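Predict the structure of ABC transporter domain-containing protein.
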Amino acid sequence: MELPVKSPDSGGRKYPYRLETRDLSYKLSTKFEDYFRCDFCGGNEGRAAAKFILKGVNCEARPGQVTAIAGPSGAGKTTLLDILAGKIPPCEVSSGEVLVNGKPINVKVFRRVSGYVTQDDALFPLLTVEETLMYSALLRLPGGRKEAGSRVKELMKELGLEHVAGSRIREGSNNGISGGERRRVSIGVDLVHDPAVILIDEPTSG
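Done. Here is the predicted structure for ABC transporter domain-containing protein.
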């Protein structure tokens, strides 16, 4: 399947996006109390040192390329993707920056031209594959049901889901689709608006 490089705001014109981080660090308190501390309550007693999930990360994803983030469990891969996707806003990043085409990321704008598939497949079990994709298409695409239906059929063909179009998701049921098919549906939900950038956490799980 060819990776889409069109922005929905570009009138169909190809527009490349280069995504990068510079000296990116993100820390999380190791103690619950640290979130509710008040400096006037007295000193630093009982406070825990912050734990760095990411520290000094520099990376670059160039347009037209597939970039993989590799590392052991707990290395911070999901946290990095959450930051790149804007799920963790720039104001919560400890230091460093995320750049899109050399400029600080505008999360609101970037979300319109990107898609983010999280590690967990958040799908409605009683909807069919086609209904799931159609639901996303009607919410994300301009135009009416006819245009959305055309995009869904195209996407199911690209993802090899045509044979299960009428099957319900039903996770854990013998009557549902397989884990791999469920993963492809999740990817399809975020590909339906033809994003210029797609971020996928654990793309081969299932």
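The longest helix spans residues 145-158.
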